Amino acid sequence: MTRHVILVGFVVTLTAFAPWLHAQEAKPSPIVAATKYTCVMHPEVVSDKTGKCPKCGMKLVPMKPKPKASPLPSTHASNEMHSGSHHDMKMPMHGMSMPSSISIADPMSRESSGTAWVPDSTPMYGKMFMFGDDMLMLHGGAFPRYTNVSTDRGDDRIDMPNWFMGMYSHPIGDNAQLGARLMMSLDPLTEGGRGYPLLFQTGESWHNQPLHDRQHPHDLFDELSLSYSQKFNADLSSYIYFGYPGEPALGAPTFMHRLSAMDNPDAPIGHHWEDSTHITFGVATLGAVWKTVKVEGSIFTGREPDENRYDFDRPRFDSYSGRISWNPTQNLALQVSHGYLHSPEALDPQTNQHRTTASAIYNQPLGKDANWATSFVWGQDNNTGEGKTEAFLLETDYQRGRDTIYARWERVEKSGHELVLSGSDLGRIFPVSAYSLGYVRDLTHGKGIDVGLGGEFTVSTMPDRLERYYGSDLGYGVQVFLRIRPSRMQMGEMGSDMEMGTKK
Length: 504
Description:
By secondary structure, the protein is mainly β. The protein contains five helices and 24 strands.
């Protein structure tokens, strides 16, 4: 009861915050009116009046007056363009594209979980603040909901999967940058120790028993990281990343940071094949970027977080991984990676794991307020004494205005040991699948915080042999939820924020 009261109070607070934020954004800008206005996407458009771009409809922003004398080199800026990206257009106030908090040479839109990449054209949902040349970006999402999963191993409950994140960057001269990130989750409070119902989900434990058919809660602190990046020339840069906790260079971008999954309240059931190392208590990564190709390696703690979701686990640095990422076009992000995880499960400390992953993420902008994002992710785990098992995921998210439709298909090979079966079934491998379709309608849209009302229906299939445990060879899940997150950022708004930063 106490958890539900806190949950309701938290939702009311978030919802009440939206009008205030909108009112703040509606205040007149302290910037002195410029005589000329232009479009970030189409700088050839110049007007004497504020308004919208006739080509793309984006808000026109003030042009910075040309200096009378040659200016000093802009801090944290470069005139090199990222080929094909919507960040090719220089910000009219700073003369630059906004860099990632991890790597000064990468556009911010490429940044995802840990050091992973998404397509450059990916829209950003967040709020940016400038403090001189320092940048703070806030992200997050919360899903207050009711969910019901059928079958003998199902459950129903009211809960709220959630996460909140801040990214900060501080330039050092023209070609170096310090970055810091903090990501937190109230899952320990809203989900309890057992997590939320999710058929066929496995991994981690509760009360010294392995979890099955439930998604474990995330820790209170999901990322606390520092990074340093250095640009050597127009094409070559490198960075160092340290997190406690953090995410090693292994797997696709974590599901809540992929736009194709961002509207779905559920974690993938192949999470522990594809991207489960996103909370690692102790990780160090060294990476090098040449144009649109990145090579990176990590040493990290292989053990997954323990049952105490509020503490910081002991760092071990007993595992390693490597990843190659490539963004061949503005709309496509590719990666392959491999890692060795030493004793990932506390209840089975003798088992080690080799994980191999590959992914392709495609994003297609469809106008000022429309987008289509699709991801394919494959993962393979090779466990001591168990052999290889694979997971396949295909998910897509289509958004236009206030409406969003999303879908996900998964097929995962799970052992009887993973599913906590009994007898001779412990050593068997069972292919299980899940098909989900969801819809979200924004009740508030583009007002600082978007609050959407959504619903999802999931069908799960399994081999006949699992009927004795689940009561049927089909499982059904239904949920109704609110999706609360920051509004999508527009390039014109980013330019205004950056100009305000120079006035502080």
